[in-house]
């Protein structure tokens, strides 16, 4: 016995309805997943359990600069594993400078050169063999800064390590800015001197410049650092953006990393977005 066959006729109007329905269903399944991944990049995934999935409206942005990489200091691994785009300042010419610059770049953090500069007080030996001191010629400064940039791979900017004396020295800072300008790099003034002329000289040479607003870990305990992050948020909300500086090694290390991790939900709740320092250059500055 032959099996009966059935032929279904679908009008053009009904066919269009079916196609539209399929497209809508596809958008709310696969389409939404793609959109969520775009809004929350891969580096957000590990913090997903502590950060709400609904993204607050951005009301301010901050750059968190972590100084003193290059010596495998305390907290290096913990900072590397923070799944937010931090900015890592690597001291050149140290045993781990090149390795940690590469690790930072691979982990999605921005890299800058942490240039050792002479302070008003302290032992010049702390600067190492190739620190910037006031007795150097401009040509010697050029050479040291260029070597530092070459040593710290992936660096897109620089800031001063110590340097309360040098950041007041116009001749030396002009020599530094000349090299940064030639290499399309920006400068962050760590503001170790209240009478620093870094911004003035950077503007003179058209070098993009940012200034530190908050030191995170002058007091080395988690609760104190969290209070500093709250102050950072206030500055960012008032001014649109702000730069903070913390440390690996004995000045902060694991304690600073832990405080930052604990404050990520707070920053998101306040509408504060963490960005690489270079992204603040076109934003309002404190």
Automatic annotation (TrEMBL):
Gene Ontology biological process terms, A to Z: carbohydrate metabolic process
Annotated SUPFAM superfamilies: Glycoside hydrolase/deacetylase
Signal sequence coordinates: none
Pfam families: Polysacc_deac_2 (PF04748)
Protein name (record): Divergent polysaccharide deacetylase
Source species: Alkaliphilus metalliredigens (strain QYMF)
């Amino acid at each position: 016995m032959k099996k009966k066959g059935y032929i279904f006729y679908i009008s053009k109007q009904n066919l269009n309805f079916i196609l539209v329905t399929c497209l809508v269903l596809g958008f709310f399944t696969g389409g939404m997943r793609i959109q969520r991944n775009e809004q929350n990049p891969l580096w957000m995934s590990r913090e997903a359990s502590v950060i709400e999935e609904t993204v607050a409206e951005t009301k301010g942005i901050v750059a968190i600069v972590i100084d003193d990489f290059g010596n495998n200091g305390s907290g290096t691994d913990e900072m590397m594993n923070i799944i937010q785009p931090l900015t890592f300042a690597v001291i050149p010419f140290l045993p781990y400078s090149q390795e940690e610059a590469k690790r930072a770049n691979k982990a999605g953090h921005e890299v800058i050169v942490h240039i050792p500069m002479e302070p008003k007080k302290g032992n010049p030996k702390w600067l190492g063999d190739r620190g910037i001191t006031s007795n150097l010629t401009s040509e010697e400064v050029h050479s040291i800064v260029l070597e530092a940039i070459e040593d710290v791979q992936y660096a897109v900017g620089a800031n001063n390590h110590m340097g309360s004396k040098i950041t007041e020295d116009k001749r030396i800072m002009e020599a530094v800015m000349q090299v940064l300008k030639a290499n399309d790099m920006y400068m962050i003034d760590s503001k170790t001197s209240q009478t620093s002329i870094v911004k003035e000289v950077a503007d003179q040479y058209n070098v993009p410049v940012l200034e530190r607003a908050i030191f995170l870990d002058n007091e080395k305990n988690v609760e104190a650092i969290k209070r500093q992050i709250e102050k950072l948020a206030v500055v960012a909300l008032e001014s649109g953006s702000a730069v903070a500086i913390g440390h690996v090694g004995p000045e902060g290390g694991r304690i600073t990393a832990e405080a930052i991790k604990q404050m990520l939900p707070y920053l998101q709740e306040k509408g504060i977005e963490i960005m690489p320092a270079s992204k603040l250059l076109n934003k309002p500055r404190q």
